[in-house]
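To whoever is on call:

I kicked off a structure prediction for a single chain this morning and the downstream step that reads the tokens threw a length-mismatch warning. I double-checked the sequence; it's 165 residues and nothing unusual in it as far as I can see. Pasting both halves so you can look.
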Amino acid sequence: MYKNTTQENNAPDLIKFAKSRAKKLREFLANQGHAISHSQSLEATAQTEGFKDWNTYTARFKMAEDAITDLKPQPETAAPYPLQVGDAISGTFRGAKFTGTLRGLEKTITGGVWRTVLHFDKRIELPGHPALKNTRERVRIMLNANGVSVNLKGKPDGHTILNMP
């Protein structure tokens, strides 16, 4: 089984491993009397893994490395969230004003982002077609320290804004 030699950047290690597999394939075929070029062995290795060509194969390694980097825990530099479970809250949810209670609070692996559960005092009707009445009484939302809803990477989306103390 192959082991990564570095923790920081997996893609170059995986590419190096794939190249060594291609080299072994080339050597094996040469010993069997079937000489192929280095580029042919790279292409053959990629195709045995189900990819169209070598470039597509190595691009997948880069995509995997980017995904791993995005999921790495951020350094513990963020202050504790200014609200605690049970606190009264107010703000806007998809443009509608609300009051309610913070029912859940969990720190995510992304620094400065918390997973929350908000319970509204009154059901909020979401905008849309009058025949389709969508209401919410409890929602799960990712919030930053400013009380603005964000995606998991911490980019604000503005669906929810809490009035912070």
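Update from on-call: the warning came from a stale cache, not from the record. Cleared it. Sanity check on the structure: DSSP finds three helices and six strands in the chain.
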